[in-house]
Amino acid sequence: MDAENTLKTPVLVLGATSLIGRHLMARLKDEGLDPVAFSRRPPPGDACWIGGDLKDPDLAERLPVTATVFSLSPIWLLPPALPALKARGMARLIAFSSTSRFTKTTSPDAAERAVAAALTEAEQAVEAWCAANGVAWTILRPTLIYDESHDANVSRIARLVRRFHFMPLSGAGEGLRQPVHAEDLAAGALAAAHAPAAADKAYNLVGGETLTYRVMVDRVFEGLGKTPRSLPMPTWLFGLLMRLAKPFYPGATTAMGTRMGQDLTFDSTDAARDFGWSPRKFHPRFAAP
């Protein structure tokens, strides 16, 4: 199948209001394409938008005719919607998953293990269904996604730094990270859709450099115009701090401390080869509050 030709028809973006979605919609418009957004709330700007949910019983009737589908919604929502998308002409699918599929399988947090299992099951279901129904698929698994002041990862650190002027670390924070910008992921998704070599493959997408958790935190301080002030502490003390902080920061878990010392790294050599993946290095810049 010619991947270039599928992009000449209107393109459907599922989850267009997601972190990556707003960047992807802008890039599609810049290419002169005609993206249609499908999401529960309208995206910013004047995008063509269809309100809805992938769980809607009349999904096939509400979707536009399209050949290329970008799925930015949680991938576990995608398998039940595939027949409706195929009925409306889908021939090319680019879907986002996460490297959490691998990094959270042995997490001490049951909810995180459940997420890893859901990602794995959904990826397998998407691959099997597409192979059986003649749809060329690409699955993209980002590492730690950031988008200054919008994400729930790096920007959470920035919020803590702004409030307390220091950042607690579990141990020395020596675990390796590869933060990747949402705008780069949008560019990568579009490049993969254009590249015939990317069909029927899954890729781990990492940022432009590998650095320790502590260095990543230091860069956040610098992006806020502040002098880095990390506070290493024993793992047990960090765990206690997270339990105390949970009422104020629902995302705080003791598993966060465990991962600070773990290397969560992947290789994107195949993505660079197949569709020119070349993301930026990690130097976030945060606007004044």
TrEMBL record:
Protein name: NAD-dependent epimerase/dehydratase domain-containing protein
Segments crossing the lipid bilayer: none
Pfam family, one: Epimerase
GO MF entries: protein-containing complex binding
Ranges where the NAD-dependent epimerase/dehydratase domain occurs: 11-63, 84-205
Classification via SUPFAM superfamilies: NAD(P)-binding Rossmann-fold domains
